């Protein structure tokens, strides 16, 4: 008894391992497609460009703390305008005349009174100005905001990727379901063609009337039309999946066997704290706090240093007399602005309160969505198990009716009913299986459990 029990246990374990292995292979194939989609999707590329732009904006904000050097020059040509009269002759000519008499010479000439033009004529001023902020609260808050905007854009990229992963998985399962439906209809077509052959043989032996043959021919046409529709549905699913991964729409898609239910290990987990939507709101809250600080930064005076190295002179002269340096400190303080700054602070605080209320609402909404997805998954599991049982019953019913019909103990309408029940049971099981995979993907999206690189 024990050897048989051990053999039976080993068979069950081997079966489970094989089933698990098939599921892993399917996921490996799907993972390759997901990676391809993340690399090739145009929307993701656009978000990457936005992220790169936010990085440059952060570097710009950091650069504002470093010294900046500018070069400027001016040249003026003037004539007329205000003047300063300087009585040079009146002040010195009498003294010069006395000196000439005493020395008996003309070494001291007579001078004219001067009229000096205030506007500099033929004058240039060229300089390099170096400035360095020493105290500037606005720059500090601006840098913090830019850093948070980088995180915000990084989260936005992750959000796009997560949504794309869900779309790719759902499209993959929809395509697999369509392929399986085509296979079911192909086998069903063989089934009804076999029924037509049997009815034709029975008609030739005068065991049934022509009505049975006509009805079986009608079933062949109906299933053939359903097969055509299923093939078109498969092509549409194929095109949409290839569109998501940015490939030619008619490229083939590799499918592994997925004949077991997905394993859901976190049905009892109701946490949504990994959702990018909440992470974004948290970052935006931090940005609003820094915006409030930015509005209050007027309280802190701004202090900066400057140094000018240049040359200024007339007639474009450049020498030791024209070169100069000039340095100093600049202090500015917003003392009064008619309440404008206080209004900005109140606006920022109101925005924070609104964001807090929005965060609570979004979190509750996401938890509700996760619970709904879990309920859908439980329903899909129940439908799958019911479809399994129904398929077994329908297969037995059809086999029995086919045997009775061949022996002339059942009418064709009974066989036709058993046949349709079998076809529908196969389709229902296929739908239930992949609906379970699809709802599992939506749970993964709702709980943000898929690892985004």
From TrEMBL:
Q: What is this protein called?
A: Outer membrane protein TolC
Name one molecular function that GO assigns to this entry: efflux transmembrane transporter activity
Q: Where would you say this protein principally sits, based on its record?
A: membrane
Alphabetical keyword list: Cell outer membrane, Membrane, Signal, Transmembrane, Transmembrane beta strand, Transport
**Listed GO CC annotations:** cell outer membrane; efflux pump complex
Member of which family?
Belongs to the outer membrane factor (OMF) (TC 1.B.17) family.
Top-level taxon: Bacteria
Q: Which Pfam families match?
A: OEP
Q: Where, subcellularly, is it found?
A: Cell outer membrane
Would the keyword Transmembrane be found if you checked this record's keyword annotation? yes
Q: Which residues form the signal peptide?
A: 1-26
């Amino acid at each position: 008894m024990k050897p048989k029990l051990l053999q039976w246990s080993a068979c069950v374990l081997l079966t489970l391992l094989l089933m698990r292995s098939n599921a892993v292979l399917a996921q490996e194939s799907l993972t390759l497609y997901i990676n391809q989609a993340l690399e090739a999707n145009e929307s993701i590329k656009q978000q990457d460009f936005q992220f790169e732009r936010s990085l440059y904006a952060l570097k710009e904000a950091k650069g504002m703390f470093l010294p900046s050097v500018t070069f400027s020059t001016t040249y003026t040509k003037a004539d007329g305008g205000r003047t300063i009269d300087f009585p040079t002759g009146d002040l010195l000519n009498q003294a010069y005349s006395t000196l000439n008499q005493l020395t008996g010479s003309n070494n001291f000439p007579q001078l004219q009174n001067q009229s000096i033009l205030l506007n500099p004529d033929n004058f240039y001023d060229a300089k390099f100005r170096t400035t360095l902020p020493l105290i500037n609260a606005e720059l500090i808050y601006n840098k913090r905001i830019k850093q948070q905007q980088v995180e915000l854009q990084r989260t936005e990229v992750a959000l796009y990727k997560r949504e794309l992963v869900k779309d790719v998985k759902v499209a993959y399962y929809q395509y697999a379901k369509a392929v399986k439906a085509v296979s079911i209809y192909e086998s069903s077509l063989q089934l009804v063609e076999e029924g037509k052959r049997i009815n034709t043989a029975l008609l030739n032996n005068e065991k049934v009337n022509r009505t049975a043959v006509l009805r079986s021919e009608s079933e062949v046409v109906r299933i053939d039309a359903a097969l055509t529709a299923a093939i078109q549905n498969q092509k549409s699913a194929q095109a949409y999946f290839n569109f998501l991964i940015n490939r030619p729409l008619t490229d083939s898609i590799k499918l592994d066997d997925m004949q077991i239910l997905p394993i859901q290990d976190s049905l009892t987990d109701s946490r949504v704290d990994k959702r990018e939507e909440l992470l974004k709101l948290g970052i935006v809250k931090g940005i609003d706090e820094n915006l409030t600080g930015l509005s209050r930064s007027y309280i802190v005076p701004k202090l900066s240093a400057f140094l000018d190295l240049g040359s200024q002179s007339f007639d474009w002269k450049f020498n030791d007399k024209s070169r100069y340096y000039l340095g100093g400190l600049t202090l500015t303080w917003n003392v009064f602005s008619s309440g404008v700054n206080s209004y900005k602070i109140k606006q920022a605080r109101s925005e924070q309160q609104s964001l807090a209320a929005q965060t609570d609402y979004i979190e509750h909404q996401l938890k509700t969505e996760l619970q709904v997805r879990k309920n859908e998954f439980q329903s899909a599991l129940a439908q799958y198990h019911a479809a399994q049982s129904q398929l077994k019953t329908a297969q037995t019913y059809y086999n029995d009716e086919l045997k009775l019909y061949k022996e002339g103990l059942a009418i064709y309408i009974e066989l036709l009913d058993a046949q349709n029940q079998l076809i529908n049971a196969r389709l229902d099981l296929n739908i239930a299986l992949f609906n379970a995979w699809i709802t599992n993907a939506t749970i993964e999206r709702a709980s943000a459990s898929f690892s985004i690189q």
